[in-house]
UniProtKB/TrEMBL annotation:
Organism annotation: Shewanella colwelliana (Alteromonas colwelliana)
Start and end residues of each RNA polymerase sigma-70 region domain: 32-97
Top-level division of the source organism's lineage: Bacteria
UniProt cross-references to InterPro entries, sorted A to Z: RNA_pol_sigma-70-like (IPR039425), RNA_pol_sigma-70_dom (IPR014284), RNA_pol_sigma70_r2 (IPR007627), RNA_pol_sigma_r2 (IPR013325), RNA_pol_sigma_r3/r4-like (IPR013324), WH-like_DNA-bd_sf (IPR036388)
Keywords: DNA-binding, Sigma factor, Transcription, Transcription regulation
Family according to the record: Belongs to the sigma-70 factor family. ECF subfamily.
Protein name: RNA polymerase subunit sigma-24
Record has Transcription regulation as a keyword: yes
Cross-referenced NCBIfam families: sigma70-ECF
Amino acid sequence: MTKVSEIEVVDDIDQRLMHQYAQGDHSAFEQLYLKHKGPLYRYFVRQIGDKTLAEDLYQETWGRVIKAATSYQSQAKFTTWLYRIAHNLLVDHVRALKPVDNFSELFTEEQDSDGLLPSDKHSPYADAEEQLKASLLKRCIVLLPQVQKEAFLLNIEMGFTAAVIAEIAGVGLEATKSRIRYANQALRECVSEKWQEQNDER
């Protein structure tokens, strides 16, 4: 099963839960909250790097979900709808988003093999090198333009397609694809440059 189909299955379940909550089933909302609270909170933290503001926006997002429950339409996928609310709150409340302060390792070996990060898996120091690359990646993500950073994180961490990200951000599909492409290109160049600088200093 692909990542996209898994998201679609989750959305089918979430849509049912949302309708159940709209009809007064509070346990349905509890299931939705427990399922999405971690990823949603990380979305805010990694966008703005301010945990206090992230907590405020996170709570406000759920508040808006509760208020809009009765008007939720089944044709809207829940995850897209949820992150659209979150995206709008970021736009409304944050004029100059701060750098990401906390960014954990997002990349599996499969993603690494696509060329985003330089790699030498045969080195006896591979683990230490991977940690260094993750640190360099974190520093490079901070330098991305905000729209590219958001598109990149939603694509890599959340597994959202470009079409879903376009709907969340309210922009065209081609513009979204360009943001993801430019983000990946910029990160490859940035990490490679900083990696070379580290090697030169050794």
